[in-house]
Write a structure and sequence with these properties.
The complex is a heterodimer.
Chain A lengths: L1 H14 L2 H11 L3 H32 L5 H49 L3 H6 L2 H43 L1 H7 L3 H38 L1 H6 L3 H53 L5 H20 L4
Chain B lengths: L18 H7 L4 H5 L2 H33 L4 H49 L3 H6 L2 H43 L1 H8 L1 H39 L1 H6 L3 H53 L5 H42 L21 E8 L9 E8 L4 E6 L5 H8 L10 E3 L2 E2 L5 H6 L1 E4 L10 H5 L8 H10 L3 H6 L17 H14 L4 E5 L7 H14 L4 E5 L3 H4 L4 E6 L2 E6 L1 H7 L2 H17 L1
Parallel strand pairs in B: 3-8, 3-9, 6-7, 7-8
Antiparallel strand pairs in B: 1-2, 1-4, 4-5, 9-10
Helix pairs in contact in B: 1-11, 3-4, 3-6, 3-11, 4-6, 6-7, 6-11, 7-10, 8-10, 8-11, 10-11, 15-17, 20-21
Chain lengths: 312, 602
């Protein structure tokens, strides 16, 4: 039990191994076209997301400031079009990647199964069925997640963040540079978080595997425990691994509990900079009021995805 | 929310499914929460403060924008900027505390629950485990337990967050403009409802797909386990084709889920952003009409954005509670079971143990079985004597042992140890008298020494060695590089069947039992060694009472009495010589085994 858990862990670790990644990318090859289309959709989605705050800037500067009600209505209409486009693009982007993920899993499973049909019998003596099953089911799953979830979400997020930065620089390079002086802080905090979370994640996984192994063993050997009057000591043993699991989890809470507020604080710092520096630019007519609002909205969009995910 | 193709949470049984009842059953978790009352109160305080501080930020923005439309000094702008940063710091501290406290408590409760679950499992009798699969109990202790923890931690935290953030930000929005608030909030309930609806549809589809996946796994498992048969009949291609068909169906079924899943987040985004458009249009108009200021317009937008996430999360929280409730019901179905076999009031622990056993007109039927397992069985084993039981598989031999140990509960007044009904013993006192070696040896994945000392508080090396010597195990263990410190089981070496059996005997011997119960426990040991072990076994025992089951005549022939069981009834009894002369079932058995021996010898 604990053994297979360790194996799974190994598999997870190896899945991210660079050399293996390259080999795995080979499985993507037959679906080049779909992947290219999906990437285009990712780019389109990021572009559409950037349009929102810009439309609000235009609305404030060009219509509200001049009392232009029909103009305001036009921009609201345009906004709705952008939203619908975002919906369509978002749908196809996810759907294509998920389908590709399914096809790859299908290919992997079929290849694996066909290969196993040709392995020599001594191979089966060396490899317990349980371990082979983990390869066919668990490991293939891990890979699918890697493709469809990790890759798409990470690529999508990165593209969106780059898009927002680009938009801000086009809007006003000076304020943009001031705002993004906080970026190194984000990098530092994120690196700190990643390093520690990875370590605690491993601890949690190990503790979980040990607890499960202990439980499994105790359930299977329950009557042995009964006839040997061993209930109390087995209970103590379980309590210990249960407590270990709890403590590993409690330790990992710390990093999450620090990370998200820290990111939010950096966001607040960026907002403060925009108010202080951008506000003075508005006073000196170097920036429009709508521009300032767009800046604030972009910053919010930049930081919100990170803090939103925090409560999950 | 699960993504397609991942492991399933199990589906609740139908009787648990009126969600209301299940949700109400969550209230029974309150005692667990109450234990951490004080900590949780601090958590709630931090939660309120986190939100209160966070809600001040848009108000500062309003001041900034309004200041800039009229007139503002650079110093004032600087102060506003400081305010925003201060809000970030204070809010962050409270957010940190909120998370540490509430999630921390949820982990502690999870621990308490799992301890209780385990303790409850320990009080369940053999029949409980025979009726259930280990995997099922494991999934309760892990995935169901986790679902319950998700309610207690993130569920409660996000639920309260949503409520507080919702109430306060709506109040502030109403303060800015009631009319704008009304229109801006129109899409939000839609958002929550659609998250909840789509969430449960995705979940249902997901489970359907998982059950199909289980078929794929089962097929692969069958194929891999039966690899020799597949090869022998050259079925490889046919198997690949079958596996392909199952996989094709899986991909097809997944297509439906992918459609739903792909729509999920974009649909949420669309519904969430509708409010922004309404505020842009209607709010912009209000600014033009000078009913609200531009600053208020900006602050309003911020509050709306702050509301959006909790509304999305609300749908998520509802699903969390539903799933948690179903899981909790499943856990309770085990945790609420009373211990079926426990000490009766006034149970005794007599200091003296002689080792006399008696079964008196014992008739026993397993709960739910159609036929009696034992019918009118009477056996007396005087202290210090050996009685052997022979019979076919399923004749009821092991049942006798299990009743003696109260692994199953015998009817009152049928089973006696030293003249006292087993019901009247304290359970621990009863079992302490026996050294029971069952048919199937179970070893825990620890050292050999640990396994051998399993039934005693502590044992010295010398005691362990002495016991191992009796079971003819010592010499073999000494060959292992780490001797008795060798780890066995899944993480260590694999013992042969005979070594396992002798380990189990050593374990029983070390207990220095009054009565030895040997349930066909030397089947993997050769006849010669078996006889030697049996001889030594009886010598080390205090009273030398033993009850043994064997298929081998050589084992049982020296017993004081031999009982032949068939279909739960005693068909013959007497000493070896008497039974042999009677020419019945036993005599037939002896003849058969002699024949076999001769065949083997020739």
């Amino acid at each position: 039990m604990s053994d297979t858990a360790y194996h799974e862990e190994e598999a997870l670790g190896r899945a991210y191994d660079a050399r293996l990644m390259r080999r795995l990318l080979g499985f993507l090859a037959p679906y080049k076209l779909q992947v290219v289309i999906a990437v285009l959709f990712v780019l389109a989605a990021a572009g559409l997301q950037i349009l929102g705050p810009y439309l609000i800037k235009v609305a404030i500067d060009d219509t509200i400031a001049h009392g232009d009600m029909p103009g305001l209505a036009r921009i609201a209409g345009l906004y709705i079009c952008v939203l619908v486009a975002e919906f369509v693009v978002g749908y196809y982007q996810t759907s294509i990647m998920q389908q590709v993920g399914q096809r790859i899993m299908y290919d992997l499973r079929m290849q694996l199964f066909a290969k196993l049909q040709r392995m020599s019998l001594p191979f089966y003596d060396r490899n317990p069925v349980g371990r082979l099953m983990t390869r066919i089911t668990g490991d293939v799953d891990v890979l699918n997640e890697l493709f469809t979830q990790a890759v798409v979400t990470i690529v999508g997020d990165i593209v969106t963040l780059i898009g927002i930065m680009a938009a801000i620089f086009i809007l006003n390079p000076e304020i943009a540079s001031v705002t993004f002086s906080v970026l190194p802080l984000i990098v530092i905090v994120t690196l700190w978080f990643r390093k520690n979370v990875r370590a605690t994640y491993r601890d949690v996984r190990t503790a979980l595997a040990r607890m499960n192994a202990n439980l499994q063993e105790n359930l299977t050997g329950m009557s042995t425990t009964h006839i040997m009057n061993r209930e109390e000591r087995q209970f103590e043993g379980f309590r210990a691994v249960n407590a270990e699991h709890r403590d590993a989890n409690v330790r990992s809470i710390f990093y999450y509990a620090v990370f998200f507020p820290a990111i939010e604080l950096i966001g607040a710092l960026a907002t403060g900079l925009i108010i202080w520096y951008g506000g003075r630019q508005v006073m000196g007519d170097a920036l429009t009021l709508g521009g300032l609002v767009a800046f604030l909205l972009y910053t919010e969009r930049f930081f919100r995805p990170i803090s939103d995910k925090s409560e999950k | 929310m699960p993504a397609p193709g991942r492991r399933p949470p199990r589906r609740p049984p139908a009787h648990l499914r009126p969600e209301d009842d299940a949700l109400k059953s969550l209230l029974t978790l309150l005692p667990y929460l109450a234990r951490h009352r004080r900590t949780l109160t601090w958590g709630a305080v931090c939660l309120v403060l986190t939100n209160a501080v966070g809600l001040a930020a848009p108000w500062v923005l309003k001041k900034v924008v309004d200041g800039l439309t009229v007139s503002v000094t650079a110093a004032k702008l600087g102060r506003y900027a400081m305010w925003i940063v201060a809000i970030g710091i204070v809010g962050g501290i409270f957010r940190y505390l909120m998370r540490s406290i509430i999630i921390g408590v949820s982990r502690k409760i999870e621990y308490d629950l799992r301890d209780d679950f385990f303790a409850r499992l320990q009080t369940q009798p053999l029949s409980f485990y025979q009726a259930r699969q280990t995997g099922d109990l494991m999934s309760r202790a892990t995935s169901d337990m986790n679902a319950v923890r998700m309610v207690l931690g993130p569920g409660i935290m996000q639920g309260l967050n949503t409520i507080i953030l919702g109430i306060v930000s709506v109040a502030l929005m109403l303060y800015i403009s009631p009319r704008l608030t009304l229109f801006a909030l129109l899409p939000l309930p839609l958002l929550s409802i659609s998250v909840s609806l789509m969430g449960s549809r995705i979940h249902a589809k997901f489970e359907d797909i998982q059950s199909h996946f289980a078929r794929i796994s089962a097929m692969a498992q069958e194929n891999l386990s039966g690899v020799r048969v597949v090869r022998a009949y050259a079925q490889e291609e046919a198997q690949i084709a079958r596996f392909g068909t199952l996989n094709d169906e899986y991909v097809e079924k997944n297509a439906g889920l992918i459609r739903l899943w792909s729509m999920f987040y974009p649909a949420m985004g669309l519904l969430a952003a509708l409010g922004t458009v309404i505020v842009l249009w209607l709010g912009g108009t209000l600014v033009i009409e000078k009913q609200i200021s531009l600053g208020e317009f900006v602050a309003f937008n911020s509050y709306l954005a702050m509301l959006t996430w909790p509304m999305i999360a609300l749908g998520w929280v509802v699903n969390l509670f539903q799933r948690g409730a179903a899981s909790w019901s499943r856990l309770r179905s085990v945790m609420d079971l009373p211990p079926a076999i426990a000490d009766h009031p006034g149970a005794v622990d007599p200091p003296e143990a002689r080792g006399a056993l008696e079964f008196r007109n014992l008739t026993f039927r397993y709960p739910g079985a159609a036929r009696d397992a034992l019918t009118d069985v009477s056996i007396t084993v005087p202290a210090g004597r050996t009685v052997a039981i022979v019979g076919h598989t399923g004749a009821g031999k092991s049942t006798l042992f299990q009743l003696l140990l109260r692994l199953h509960e015998p009817p009152a007044g049928t089973v006696f140890v030293d003249g006292i009904d087993v019901h009247d013993y304290r359970l621990a006192a009863l079992r302490r008298r026996f050294g029971y070696v069952p048919q199937e040896t179970f070893l825990f994945s620890t050292t050999l020494a640990g396994n051998i000392a399993f039934g005693v508080g502590a044992a010295s090396n010398e005691e362990i060695r002495a016991a191992a010597r009796v079971a003819h195990l010592e010499a073999e263990v000494d060959v292992f590089p780490r001797g008795f410190q060798t780890v066995v089981g899944e993480r260590g070496i694999t013992l042969s069947g005979g070594q396992k059996q002798r380990t189990a005997i050593t374990r029983a011997v070390l207990r220095k039992p009054t009565v030895l119960l040997l349930d066909d426990c030397l089947s993997s040991v050769d006849t010669f060694t078996e006889e030697a072990i049996l001889r030594e076994l009886t010598q080390v025992m205090e009273t030398r009472t033993s009850l043994l089951v064997s298929h081998r005549v050589s084992t049982v022939r020296h017993a004081d009495e031999i009982i032949v069981l068939d279909d739960g009834r005693i068909v013959e009894r007497g000493s070896h010589t008497v039974l042999l002369a009677a020419g019945g079932v036993y005599a037939e058995l002896v003849r058969q085994q002699q024949l076999e021996e001769e065949l083997e010898a020739s």
